[in-house]
Write a structure and sequence with these properties.
6 helices, single chain
Length: about 140
Amino acid sequence: MASVKFTDNSAEVRAALEQAQARALEIIGGRAETHAKELCPVGTPESTGKKGYRGSTLRNSITHRVDGKTVAIGTNVHYAPYVELGTGPYFTPPPDWMENNAERGKGIGHSFVHPRPYLRPALENYLQEYKDIIESELR
């Protein structure tokens, strides 16, 4: 009886899967960044009451980063959480917050901001698109 010879290609397969994963995460990060920028509110002279106001600092600051098996989307603008979550009585904690010690209606300002989410919807509203990207890259 003839012997059968097998070749172990597991290292090559593993490397190809890791490359596909890295490509998928980068593509998803870019798409999520684009969606967040499309959803991000931009101040105007009318909305701010400031003559000649030019908005889009927040929108232009949105970026993404791939770190290993994780992709993150966000911004370093200090007021970004207030736009996403609202302030004072309009503050809406994300559903996954386990602890929320903030008191509604407490604050030093005279006006409060309604939440205008742009990051969470950029992720949640496009899950099927992101799944399709992963599937496509793994083919």
